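Practice problem: predict the structure.
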Amino acid sequence: MDTLNKSNIEKYMANIRSMENLARIQDKIATLQRHQAINDESGDKTVDAEIQGIRIGECVLITSTTEVLTEVALNIKNASPHKHTFVVALTNGYIHYGPPEADYDKGGYEVTECFLSPGWQQLYQDRVHDIIERL
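Answer:
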């Protein structure tokens, strides 16, 4: 009887894991459909975002309308000639997450919640570089 019960419990647990996976997939699909509707409603394939740079002595602040993930911010900090460079997220608007291009194939919450195409990172870093050079 114990063997049968153990077998049934293992099957039950496998079914629960499958249902959890399906629920996550359904949630991701719903999120992507909601984002697609927002994008379609905008009538444009590009997103305008303001980037500002502020320098106070050796401290530089660079703004972003996204919640920039660590790799992108570290790229900016490491490329800056200024001793203290910081990325200030969620400024001058909010367009969700800004994951690095390499994360798009991995999926995950931040990528699912992102409105931007993978090419956003290079565009952003190039503009930031131009701004930092002028500070």
